[in-house]
Amino acid sequence: MSTATVTAPPAEKTAEQPVEQPAETNGVRPRIRGIDLARGLALLGMFAVHGGPSSDVGGVTGALMFVASGHSSILFATLAGLSLALLSGGATPPGASDPRRTRLRIAVRGLLIMAIGVTLTAMGTPVAVILAYYGVFFLLAIPFLRLTARTLLVIAGCWALAGPVVALLVQSWWWGSSAADMVARVDPITLLSGEGIDQLLVTGVYPAVTWMPFILVGLALGRLDIARLSRTTMLAIGIGMAFVAYGFSALLTPLGPRPVAGPPDASGSLDWSILLGADAHTGSTFEIVGGIGVALAILALCLAVAERLPRLTRPIVAAGSMSLTIYVLHVLTINVAGLDAMPGQPLWVLLAFIAGSIAFALIWFRFARRGPLESFVHSTTAALVTRKSSLTTDPTTDRRTHP
């Protein structure tokens, strides 16, 4: 899923081979272990949100549950943007060589991931599945692939400021409108899963209108060459962003119950004070900036730790390198087991998710190079893109009338 220039020390070559496989871009450069470690931690955080204890239990467990809420999905989205950068050239944006093929590969990949997400949601799972949103993010990111890191960061900053306001304005008009009813009747995604294009873009749990900044920042990190960035600088910037965003939000938000996103009240108006909050899924500028800060700090730590402790981090790295498969398996498990997919489960449920997913990943990589769903997405994308390219370049397929 991603490429890199960082490899495990020679002494670890045999032990770490399952998660040091060539990336899906061109099979030349190995994966960056720190990215897979961060992706694995994001998965564990989602396990905690969907099948762990409540943060009300207090202590270390409660604190970890609180941090996992919201931040896990933001880290996941930021890493998605980083993966897009690595899939499209890393520090060198796709140039004149074959930009159309790059865009097509990412579009196909996004549609496949979106289809998997829609399928999971259609099963009636209680989990707010992120994959359909994830696929939409891939599609929306295509126009930004050729931009420089500086331009991407500027756009991300502007989007973080304007996106929450736009979201609130659109939501206040959309909910209960005739347009919403019409879309619900004709939108095939809504008809299939109950979660339609309007939710994926504006009104859902992870709407593109407020989540694209995470993708753009991740894309910028890849354009800066993540393997060479200073871990200390990333950590300091991340902590600073989180401190400023959450600090200002705490000062501006009155004590008492925090507002959350939702439909208008009986008067038809929305509570604009939501823009001052920073709690999970408020979709405010403070949540976006703070979430990016936490993601940067975690990524910096993961890059540093994975390089220095390859054996210790191997289990989580293995899980992170097949995150799509494990995410889908955890949603299916929750569905089959009839769990509520909300914090409040016994601690052993969370531990079982973690142990089971890590064991599955370690065993799988003894026999295969990629996770099963990763292999499916990779091979299907390659086949479709190759077929499309051959149809485009083969003169026998040109049916136009020639003079």
TrEMBL record:
Listed name of the protein: Uncharacterized membrane protein YeiB
Domain of life assignment: Bacteria
Keyword Acyltransferase attached: no
Alphabetical UniProt keywords: Membrane, Transmembrane, Transmembrane helix
InterPro entries attached to this UniProt entry: Bact_Transport_Assoc, DUF418, HGSNAT_cat
Origin species: Agreia bicolorata
Sequence ranges assigned to domain DUF418 in this UniProt record: 281-381
TM ranges: 74-92, 104-122, 128-145, 152-175, 200-222, 234-255, 288-306, 318-339, 345-365
Record has Transmembrane helix as a keyword: yes
Pfam families assigned: DUF418 (PF04235), HGSNAT_cat (PF07786)
Region annotation (Disordered) ranges: 1-28
The Heparan-alpha-glucosaminide N-acetyltransferase catalytic domain, residue ranges: 31-231
